[in-house]
Specification:
single chain, alpha+beta, Beta-Lactamase, Heat Shock Protein 90, five-stranded antiparallel sheet, five-stranded mixed sheet, 46% helix, 19% strand
Amino acid sequence: MRETATIESLNTIADAITNAGSARQFLSRFPAELEKLLGVKNTVIYYRDEATHRYLPQTASAEAGSLIPLESESELIASFSQRHDALFLEERDSIYSQLITSTLHSLPGLGNVNLVIPLHCGRSLRGLLLTRIPGDRKKAAAIVAAVRVACQMLVPVIEVQHLNLVNDQNYYRLFRFDHLVQIGQMVAEITHELRTPLNTALLEFAEIVDQLDEDSELRQSYRKIQGEIVRVNGLIDSLLNFSRFREITLEPVDLDAFVKTAVNNIPRKRFPAHCQIRLEPAEKLIVTTDANRLLQVFLNVVSNAFEAAGENGVITIAVGRDNNAAASRCFIVIQDNGPGIADEIRSQIAQPFFTTKPQGTGLGLFNSVNIIKSLNGDLEIHSTPQGTRVRLLLPEEN
Protein backbone atom coordinates (compact mmCIF):
# COMPACT_ATOMS: atom_id res chain seq x y z
CA MET A 1 0.00 0.00 0.00
CA ARG A 2 2.87 2.37 0.91
CA GLU A 3 4.62 1.67 -2.43
CA THR A 4 1.42 2.53 -4.33
CA ALA A 5 1.08 5.79 -2.40
CA THR A 6 4.74 6.60 -3.12
CA ILE A 7 4.28 6.03 -6.86
CA GLU A 8 1.19 8.25 -6.84
CA SER A 9 3.17 10.94 -5.02
CA LEU A 10 5.93 10.77 -7.64
CA ASN A 11 3.37 11.06 -10.41
CA THR A 12 1.96 14.16 -8.69
CA ILE A 13 5.45 15.69 -8.47
CA ALA A 14 6.16 14.85 -12.13
CA ASP A 15 2.92 16.54 -13.18
CA ALA A 16 3.78 19.61 -11.05
CA ILE A 17 7.22 19.88 -12.71
CA THR A 18 5.67 19.55 -16.16
CA ASN A 19 3.01 22.17 -15.49
CA ALA A 20 5.31 24.70 -13.78
CA GLY A 21 6.24 27.85 -15.67
CA SER A 22 9.84 26.71 -15.46
CA ALA A 23 11.64 23.99 -13.54
CA ARG A 24 13.79 26.54 -11.70
CA GLN A 25 10.66 28.36 -10.53
CA PHE A 26 9.30 25.03 -9.29
CA LEU A 27 12.52 24.58 -7.28
CA SER A 28 11.23 26.98 -4.61
CA ARG A 29 8.11 24.80 -4.18
CA PHE A 30 9.97 21.49 -4.34
CA PRO A 31 10.80 21.13 -0.60
CA ALA A 32 7.18 21.76 0.41
CA GLU A 33 5.91 19.28 -2.22
CA LEU A 34 8.28 16.58 -0.95
CA GLU A 35 7.21 17.14 2.64
CA LYS A 36 3.52 17.09 1.77
CA LEU A 37 3.57 14.06 -0.54
CA LEU A 38 6.36 11.87 0.89
CA GLY A 39 6.17 12.75 4.58
CA VAL A 40 9.77 13.95 4.91
CA LYS A 41 10.68 16.82 7.28
CA ASN A 42 13.09 19.75 7.54
CA THR A 43 13.82 19.73 3.80
CA VAL A 44 16.41 22.15 2.41
CA ILE A 45 17.71 22.34 -1.14
CA TYR A 46 20.88 24.21 -2.06
CA TYR A 47 21.00 24.73 -5.84
CA ARG A 48 23.69 26.43 -7.90
CA ASP A 49 22.78 29.85 -9.27
CA GLU A 50 24.30 30.44 -12.73
CA ALA A 51 24.61 34.20 -12.28
CA THR A 52 26.51 34.20 -8.96
CA HIS A 53 27.88 30.60 -8.95
CA ARG A 54 26.70 30.31 -5.34
CA TYR A 55 24.37 27.63 -3.97
CA LEU A 56 21.10 29.29 -2.96
CA PRO A 57 18.84 27.73 -0.29
CA GLN A 58 15.22 26.71 -0.78
CA THR A 59 13.15 25.33 2.09
CA ALA A 60 9.56 24.80 3.15
CA SER A 61 10.26 26.66 6.39
CA ALA A 62 8.76 30.11 6.79
CA GLU A 63 12.18 31.24 8.06
CA ALA A 64 13.99 30.31 4.84
CA GLY A 65 15.37 33.82 4.49
CA SER A 66 17.60 33.21 7.50
CA LEU A 67 19.67 30.67 5.57
CA ILE A 68 22.72 32.07 3.83
CA PRO A 69 23.92 30.89 0.40
CA LEU A 70 26.86 28.50 0.21
CA GLU A 71 30.01 29.33 -1.71
CA SER A 72 31.41 26.78 -4.15
CA GLU A 73 34.43 26.42 -1.85
CA SER A 74 32.37 25.79 1.28
CA GLU A 75 33.09 22.58 3.21
CA LEU A 76 29.60 21.16 2.74
CA ILE A 77 29.63 21.63 -1.05
CA ALA A 78 33.24 20.44 -1.40
CA SER A 79 32.58 17.29 0.66
CA PHE A 80 29.88 16.13 -1.80
CA SER A 81 31.42 17.35 -5.07
CA GLN A 82 32.70 13.85 -5.96
CA ARG A 83 29.98 11.82 -4.22
CA HIS A 84 26.98 10.69 -6.29
CA ASP A 85 25.21 8.28 -3.95
CA ALA A 86 22.82 9.36 -1.19
CA LEU A 87 24.14 9.55 2.36
CA PHE A 88 21.91 8.34 5.18
CA LEU A 89 23.40 9.85 8.34
CA GLU A 90 23.97 7.55 11.28
CA GLU A 91 26.01 7.76 14.47
CA ARG A 92 29.29 7.03 12.66
CA ASP A 93 28.70 9.95 10.30
CA SER A 94 29.36 12.49 13.04
CA ILE A 95 31.66 14.60 10.81
CA TYR A 96 28.91 15.04 8.22
CA SER A 97 26.35 15.67 10.96
CA GLN A 98 28.48 18.41 12.51
CA LEU A 99 29.06 19.96 9.09
CA ILE A 100 25.33 20.07 8.32
CA THR A 101 24.40 21.29 11.79
CA SER A 102 26.90 24.17 11.53
CA THR A 103 25.53 25.10 8.11
CA LEU A 104 21.89 25.12 9.22
CA HIS A 105 22.46 26.43 12.74
CA SER A 106 20.43 29.60 12.09
CA LEU A 107 17.20 27.61 11.74
CA PRO A 108 16.52 25.44 14.81
CA GLY A 109 15.40 21.95 13.86
CA LEU A 110 16.64 22.03 10.29
CA GLY A 111 20.03 20.76 11.40
CA ASN A 112 18.29 17.55 12.48
CA VAL A 113 18.42 15.92 9.03
CA ASN A 114 19.45 12.36 8.27
CA LEU A 115 19.53 12.17 4.47
CA VAL A 116 21.74 14.06 2.03
CA ILE A 117 21.33 13.60 -1.72
CA PRO A 118 23.94 15.18 -4.03
CA LEU A 119 22.26 16.62 -7.13
CA HIS A 120 24.59 16.01 -10.05
CA CYS A 121 24.26 16.74 -13.74
CA GLY A 122 27.02 14.96 -15.58
CA ARG A 123 30.23 15.56 -13.62
CA SER A 124 29.04 18.80 -12.08
CA LEU A 125 27.48 19.12 -8.64
CA ARG A 126 24.36 21.23 -9.13
CA GLY A 127 23.12 21.12 -5.56
CA LEU A 128 22.34 19.26 -2.36
CA LEU A 129 19.05 18.09 -0.90
CA LEU A 130 18.97 17.69 2.88
CA THR A 131 15.95 16.22 4.61
CA ARG A 132 14.77 14.06 7.50
CA ILE A 133 13.27 10.65 6.82
CA PRO A 134 11.08 9.31 9.69
CA GLY A 135 12.02 5.90 11.06
CA ASP A 136 15.19 3.86 10.65
CA ARG A 137 16.98 3.28 7.37
CA LYS A 138 15.32 -0.07 6.52
CA LYS A 139 11.79 1.17 7.14
CA ALA A 140 12.49 4.37 5.21
CA ALA A 141 14.10 2.71 2.16
CA ALA A 142 11.07 3.30 -0.09
CA ILE A 143 10.90 7.00 0.84
CA VAL A 144 14.65 7.44 0.31
CA ALA A 145 14.30 5.91 -3.16
CA ALA A 146 11.29 8.13 -3.93
CA VAL A 147 13.13 11.30 -2.91
CA ARG A 148 16.05 10.33 -5.16
CA VAL A 149 13.70 9.67 -8.09
CA ALA A 150 11.99 13.03 -7.54
CA CYS A 151 15.39 14.76 -7.65
CA GLN A 152 16.39 12.82 -10.75
CA MET A 153 13.23 14.09 -12.44
CA LEU A 154 13.72 17.74 -11.50
CA VAL A 155 17.46 18.31 -12.01
CA PRO A 156 17.66 17.30 -15.71
CA VAL A 157 14.63 19.47 -16.51
CA ILE A 158 16.26 22.50 -14.82
CA GLU A 159 19.53 21.92 -16.67
CA VAL A 160 17.90 21.30 -20.06
CA GLN A 161 15.82 24.47 -19.73
CA HIS A 162 18.95 26.42 -18.76
CA LEU A 163 20.87 24.95 -21.71
CA ASN A 164 18.05 25.94 -24.07
CA LEU A 165 18.15 29.47 -22.65
CA VAL A 166 21.93 29.68 -23.11
CA ASN A 167 21.61 28.38 -26.69
CA ASP A 168 18.97 31.01 -27.44
CA GLN A 169 21.17 33.73 -25.96
CA ASN A 170 24.20 32.56 -27.94
CA TYR A 171 22.16 32.46 -31.14
CA TYR A 172 20.99 36.01 -30.48
CA ARG A 173 24.56 37.16 -29.80
CA LEU A 174 25.81 35.55 -33.04
CA PHE A 175 22.89 37.07 -34.97
CA ARG A 176 23.57 40.48 -33.44
CA PHE A 177 27.34 40.18 -33.98
CA ASP A 178 26.84 39.31 -37.64
CA HIS A 179 24.66 42.39 -38.11
CA LEU A 180 27.15 44.58 -36.22
CA VAL A 181 29.94 43.37 -38.52
CA GLN A 182 27.86 44.28 -41.57
CA ILE A 183 26.99 47.67 -40.06
CA GLY A 184 30.65 48.24 -39.22
CA GLN A 185 31.74 47.51 -42.79
CA MET A 186 29.07 49.82 -44.17
CA VAL A 187 29.97 52.58 -41.70
CA ALA A 188 33.68 52.33 -42.58
CA GLU A 189 32.94 52.67 -46.29
CA ILE A 190 30.52 55.58 -45.88
CA THR A 191 32.72 57.53 -43.47
CA HIS A 192 35.74 57.07 -45.73
CA GLU A 193 33.76 58.54 -48.65
CA LEU A 194 32.52 61.43 -46.51
CA ARG A 195 35.83 62.44 -44.96
CA THR A 196 37.61 63.56 -48.16
CA PRO A 197 34.94 66.01 -49.43
CA LEU A 198 34.37 67.35 -45.93
CA ASN A 199 38.06 68.07 -45.42
CA THR A 200 38.18 69.73 -48.83
CA ALA A 201 35.19 71.91 -47.91
CA LEU A 202 36.84 72.80 -44.58
CA LEU A 203 40.02 73.99 -46.35
CA GLU A 204 38.02 76.00 -48.87
CA PHE A 205 36.03 77.69 -46.11
CA ALA A 206 39.27 78.56 -44.33
CA GLU A 207 40.49 80.29 -47.52
CA ILE A 208 37.25 82.27 -47.80
CA VAL A 209 37.18 83.27 -44.12
CA ASP A 210 40.73 84.62 -44.32
CA GLN A 211 39.64 87.06 -47.06
CA LEU A 212 36.74 88.51 -45.08
CA ASP A 213 36.79 91.35 -42.57
CA GLU A 214 37.00 90.28 -38.94
CA ASP A 215 33.67 91.93 -38.07
CA SER A 216 31.84 90.79 -41.17
CA GLU A 217 28.53 89.02 -40.53
CA LEU A 218 29.36 86.71 -43.42
CA ARG A 219 32.62 85.79 -41.68
CA GLN A 220 30.67 84.83 -38.56
CA SER A 221 28.34 82.65 -40.65
CA TYR A 222 31.30 80.92 -42.27
CA ARG A 223 32.78 80.30 -38.82
CA LYS A 224 29.58 78.55 -37.78
CA ILE A 225 29.71 76.40 -40.92
CA GLN A 226 33.33 75.51 -40.13
CA GLY A 227 32.32 74.52 -36.61
CA GLU A 228 29.59 72.21 -37.93
CA ILE A 229 32.01 70.56 -40.36
CA VAL A 230 34.48 69.99 -37.52
CA ARG A 231 31.65 68.44 -35.47
CA VAL A 232 30.72 66.11 -38.36
CA ASN A 233 34.39 65.11 -38.64
CA GLY A 234 34.30 64.24 -34.94
CA LEU A 235 31.27 62.05 -35.57
CA ILE A 236 33.14 60.35 -38.41
CA ASP A 237 36.06 59.63 -36.07
CA SER A 238 33.65 58.08 -33.56
CA LEU A 239 32.05 55.96 -36.27
CA LEU A 240 35.44 54.75 -37.45
CA ASN A 241 36.39 53.79 -33.89
CA PHE A 242 33.07 51.94 -33.63
CA SER A 243 33.63 50.01 -36.87
CA ARG A 244 37.38 49.34 -36.66
CA PHE A 245 38.59 46.07 -35.11
CA ARG A 246 41.77 46.43 -33.10
CA GLU A 247 43.74 43.53 -31.71
CA ILE A 248 43.56 43.22 -27.93
CA THR A 249 46.86 42.99 -26.06
CA LEU A 250 46.34 41.65 -22.54
CA GLU A 251 48.98 42.34 -19.91
CA PRO A 252 49.26 42.85 -16.13
CA VAL A 253 48.26 46.40 -15.14
CA ASP A 254 48.61 47.97 -11.70
CA LEU A 255 45.23 49.70 -11.29
CA ASP A 256 46.34 52.29 -8.75
CA ALA A 257 49.36 53.34 -10.83
CA PHE A 258 47.22 53.33 -13.98
CA VAL A 259 44.65 55.70 -12.44
CA LYS A 260 47.28 58.11 -11.06
CA THR A 261 49.11 58.29 -14.42
CA ALA A 262 45.87 58.73 -16.39
CA VAL A 263 44.63 61.54 -14.12
CA ASN A 264 48.00 63.34 -14.16
CA ASN A 265 47.97 63.29 -17.98
CA ILE A 266 44.52 64.90 -18.31
CA PRO A 267 45.06 68.50 -19.53
CA ARG A 268 43.90 71.02 -16.93
CA LYS A 269 41.95 72.90 -19.59
CA ARG A 270 39.57 69.94 -19.73
CA PHE A 271 38.66 70.41 -16.05
CA PRO A 272 35.58 72.57 -15.41
CA ALA A 273 36.38 75.67 -13.35
CA HIS A 274 37.34 74.79 -9.76
CA CYS A 275 36.44 71.11 -10.32
CA GLN A 276 38.37 68.73 -8.04
CA ILE A 277 39.52 65.16 -8.55
CA ARG A 278 40.04 63.17 -5.37
CA LEU A 279 42.02 59.93 -5.54
CA GLU A 280 41.28 57.50 -2.72
CA PRO A 281 44.28 55.57 -1.31
CA ALA A 282 44.39 51.98 -2.52
CA GLU A 283 46.27 48.72 -2.17
CA LYS A 284 48.27 47.28 -5.05
CA LEU A 285 45.82 45.47 -7.33
CA ILE A 286 46.91 43.84 -10.60
CA VAL A 287 44.42 43.13 -13.39
CA THR A 288 44.85 41.49 -16.77
CA THR A 289 43.74 43.93 -19.44
CA ASP A 290 44.66 46.08 -22.45
CA ALA A 291 45.94 49.33 -20.92
CA ASN A 292 45.31 51.45 -24.03
CA ARG A 293 41.72 50.31 -24.38
CA LEU A 294 41.10 50.70 -20.67
CA LEU A 295 42.49 54.24 -20.88
CA GLN A 296 40.01 55.07 -23.65
CA VAL A 297 37.12 53.90 -21.45
CA PHE A 298 38.48 55.61 -18.32
CA LEU A 299 38.91 58.99 -20.04
CA ASN A 300 35.43 58.80 -21.54
CA VAL A 301 33.84 58.08 -18.14
CA VAL A 302 35.88 60.83 -16.45
CA SER A 303 34.88 63.26 -19.21
CA ASN A 304 31.21 62.44 -18.57
CA ALA A 305 31.81 62.96 -14.85
CA PHE A 306 33.35 66.39 -15.56
CA GLU A 307 30.25 67.42 -17.49
CA ALA A 308 27.91 66.08 -14.80
CA ALA A 309 29.79 67.69 -11.89
CA GLY A 310 30.30 71.06 -13.60
CA GLU A 311 31.95 74.04 -11.92
CA ASN A 312 32.97 73.48 -8.29
CA GLY A 313 32.17 69.80 -8.72
CA VAL A 314 33.99 66.93 -7.03
CA ILE A 315 34.97 63.67 -8.72
CA THR A 316 36.17 60.81 -6.53
CA ILE A 317 38.16 57.96 -8.07
CA ALA A 318 39.09 54.77 -6.25
CA VAL A 319 40.20 51.23 -7.00
CA GLY A 320 39.30 48.09 -5.10
CA ARG A 321 38.47 44.40 -5.18
CA ASP A 322 34.93 43.12 -5.81
CA ASN A 323 34.43 40.71 -2.90
CA ASN A 324 30.86 39.84 -3.99
CA ALA A 325 31.90 38.39 -7.35
CA ALA A 326 32.27 34.64 -7.86
CA ALA A 327 35.40 35.16 -9.97
CA SER A 328 38.18 37.39 -8.64
CA ARG A 329 37.64 40.88 -10.06
CA CYS A 330 38.91 44.38 -9.32
CA PHE A 331 37.38 47.71 -10.19
CA ILE A 332 37.91 51.40 -10.83
CA VAL A 333 35.03 53.51 -9.51
CA ILE A 334 34.41 57.06 -10.72
CA GLN A 335 31.90 59.01 -8.61
CA ASP A 336 30.65 62.53 -9.40
CA ASN A 337 28.43 64.80 -7.31
CA GLY A 338 26.30 65.99 -10.20
CA PRO A 339 22.49 65.84 -10.43
CA GLY A 340 22.41 62.19 -11.55
CA ILE A 341 20.79 60.63 -14.60
CA ALA A 342 17.10 61.32 -15.16
CA ASP A 343 14.89 58.24 -14.75
CA GLU A 344 13.29 58.67 -18.17
CA ILE A 345 16.61 58.33 -20.04
CA ARG A 346 18.47 55.90 -17.77
CA SER A 347 17.70 52.88 -19.95
CA GLN A 348 18.89 54.68 -23.10
CA ILE A 349 22.24 56.11 -22.07
CA ALA A 350 24.33 53.21 -23.43
CA GLN A 351 22.45 52.94 -26.72
CA PRO A 352 24.30 54.02 -29.87
CA PHE A 353 23.65 57.61 -31.06
CA PHE A 354 21.64 58.54 -27.97
CA THR A 355 22.96 61.76 -26.44
CA THR A 356 21.75 64.74 -24.42
CA LYS A 357 24.79 66.85 -25.38
CA PRO A 358 24.38 69.46 -28.14
CA GLN A 359 27.73 68.46 -29.68
CA GLY A 360 27.66 64.79 -28.68
CA THR A 361 27.78 61.77 -31.00
CA GLY A 362 26.06 59.30 -28.68
CA LEU A 363 28.81 56.72 -29.22
CA GLY A 364 31.12 57.38 -26.25
CA LEU A 365 29.39 55.26 -23.61
CA PHE A 366 28.26 52.69 -26.18
CA ASN A 367 31.89 52.19 -27.28
CA SER A 368 33.05 52.10 -23.65
CA VAL A 369 30.62 49.31 -22.75
CA ASN A 370 31.70 47.25 -25.76
CA ILE A 371 35.40 47.81 -25.05
CA ILE A 372 35.10 46.77 -21.41
CA LYS A 373 33.14 43.66 -22.46
CA SER A 374 35.93 42.77 -24.91
CA LEU A 375 38.32 42.92 -21.94
CA ASN A 376 36.19 40.31 -20.08
CA GLY A 377 34.91 43.01 -17.76
CA ASP A 378 31.75 44.95 -17.00
CA LEU A 379 30.68 48.58 -16.78
CA GLU A 380 28.11 49.28 -14.05
CA ILE A 381 26.25 52.57 -13.59
CA HIS A 382 24.42 53.59 -10.42
CA SER A 383 22.82 57.02 -10.34
CA THR A 384 20.89 59.04 -7.75
CA PRO A 385 20.01 62.75 -7.48
CA GLN A 386 23.24 63.10 -5.44
CA GLY A 387 25.47 61.90 -8.28
CA THR A 388 26.46 59.05 -10.57
CA ARG A 389 28.85 56.20 -9.82
CA VAL A 390 30.46 54.17 -12.61
CA ARG A 391 32.38 50.94 -11.87
CA LEU A 392 34.79 49.44 -14.39
CA LEU A 393 35.17 45.78 -13.39
CA LEU A 394 38.11 43.75 -14.68
CA PRO A 395 39.47 40.23 -14.03
CA GLU A 396 42.23 40.13 -11.43
CA GLU A 397 45.53 38.61 -12.54
CA ASN A 398 45.83 34.99 -11.44
